Amino acid sequence: MKTSSKFLMIAIAAAGLSTAAFAQRDPAYQAARSAGQIGELPDGYLGVVGAGSAELRALVNNINIQRKAKYTQSAAAGATVEQMAFTSGCNLILKTAPGEKYQTPAGEWKTRTAAAPERDPRCV
Questions:
Q1: pLDDT tens across 82-121, in order?
Q2: Closest CA to 117 of 4, 22, 20, 41
Q3: pLDDT digits (tens, 9 = 90+) for 49-63
Q4: What angle, 0 to 180 degrees and rounded to 10, lies between the N-to-C axes of helices 27-34 and 54-75?
Q5: Cβ-defined contacts of 53-60 (< 8 Å, 24+)
Q6: Tag placement on the chain: N or C end, fewer CB within 10 Å?
Q7: Measured between alpha carbons, how far is residue 92 from residues 56, 84, 107 in Å?
Q8: Dihedral of CA 51/63/12/2: which sign?
Q9: Distance in angstroms (rounded) separating the CA atoms of residues 81 and 75
Q10: CB 76: neighbour CB atoms within 10 A?
Q11: Given the DSSP bridges, would you call strands 38-40 and 101-103 parallel, antiparallel or unpaired?
Q12: Dihedral over alpha carbons 55, 103, 98, 111 (to 10 degrees)
């Protein structure tokens, strides 16, 4: 299978990850997201913007553990965990709402505007 075809299949599979798996969230997650204290990373995980409290870091770590478990489960279909995480990162950044934080491929935290977010050029 060509690499581009495999990547497209991964992207399609990962698109479904953000629905049911992440639908039930702690209200603290939404509050931190709305306040710009956390944001989406290009690698498919959640990041703390700035230092963050121990409580906030624990919340982010817990969500990232859940995400990695989902990526690992989905990777059993023929992709690596890293491929699943990267593809999910592309999709999660694309789905950020205006006012939410995300990290650019260069590592800079940005606040989403009405314009498309800056994503890795490999994102489909």
A1: 999 999 999 999 999 999 999 999 999 999 999 999 999 9
A2: 41
A3: 999 999 999 999 999
A4: 110
A5: 55/28, 56/32, 59/26, 59/28, 59/29, 59/32
A6: N
A7: 20, 12, 16
A8: positive
A9: 5
A10: 9
A11: parallel
A12: 90
For residues 10 and 53, what is the distance between their CA atoms, to the nearest angstrom?
35
**Residue tagged 């230092």 (tokens):** 51
- Residue 123, sorted as left (phi over 0), alpha (psi -120 to 50) or beta, turns out to be beta
In sequence order, what are the beta bridge partners of 48?
A: 38
Q: Which amino acid is at 16?
A: G
Neighbours of 51 (CB within 10 A): 8
Question: How far is C-alpha 6 from the chain's CA centre?
Answer: 20
CA nearest neighbour of 99 among 44, 18, 34, 29 = 34
Residue with tokens 């931190």: 32
Six-digit token pair at 67? 């995400």
Amino acid at 89: G
